[in-house]
Write a structure and sequence with these properties.
By secondary structure, the protein is α/β, with parallel strands linked by helices. It has five helices and twelve strands. A six-stranded parallel sheet has the order 5-2-6-7-1-8, sandwiched between helices. The chain has a two-stranded antiparallel sheet with strand order 3-4.
């Protein structure tokens, strides 16, 4: 069973993942918790914006291949280097054959409104997809997109900036803001 959790920043993806981890832990399930080493925030921990945390390891696809009969949790799938997407999906298939339950979370869209290939591939093979929304910073409606507000230029999927220089925005407010820029 593969479950994908996706949405913009501040939508509760990591919080959702940690709740599932705690539920599995309470049921005495063997669990494995990972995040890509590219996520340098809070080394060795998954930390949600509301302060919940759980210990984790850096994601190693080779190490994961030896896991059997466990619940596997992976946060920030969108940070896995794009060139490893195929290897990541092959590893997920192998883990399913080894009777593992897989939960993975990550952003749905880049700040340039591009789909993260890693998340798209993961969602394509998922049995269940949870799409979470956040509250738009402008209108308070359902935000589906993460707007980059940092100072460095972001060019594409590979150039995703890690950190808190993002805010959730709905598509309507994004497009209204773009129209105002051109007027």
């Amino acid at each position: 069973m593969i479950t994908a959790i996706t949405g913009p920043v501040c939508s509760g993806k990591t919080e959702y993942l940690i709740k599932r981890i705690n539920k599995s832990f309470a049921c005495s399930s063997d669990i494995e918790v990972y995040k890509p080493y590219q996520d340098t925030r809070n080394p060795g921990k998954l930390v949600s914006r509301n302060g919940e945390e759980f210990e984790c390891e850096d994601l190693s696809l080779n190490m994961m291949e030896s896991v059997w009969n466990s619940a596997i949790f992976i946060d920030e799938i969108n940070l896995i280097p794009v060139e490893y997407t195929d290897k990541f999906i092959e590893t997920i298939f192998l883990l399913c054959k080894q009777e593992n339950l897989i939960y993975g979370a990550g952003l749905n869209l880049t700040s340039n409104m591009l789909v993260y290939p890693q998340m798209a591939a993961f969602m394509a093979i998922a049995d269940d997809i949870k799409v979470l929304t956040a509250s738009c910073k402008y209108c308070k409606g359902a935000a589906q997109y993460s707007e980059y507000i940092g100072k460095e230029e972001v060019k594409g999927v590979q150039d995703h900036k890690i950190g808190y220089d993002f805010r959730p925005v709905c598509f309507s407010c994004k497009f209204v803001a773009e129209r105002k820029e051109y007027l």
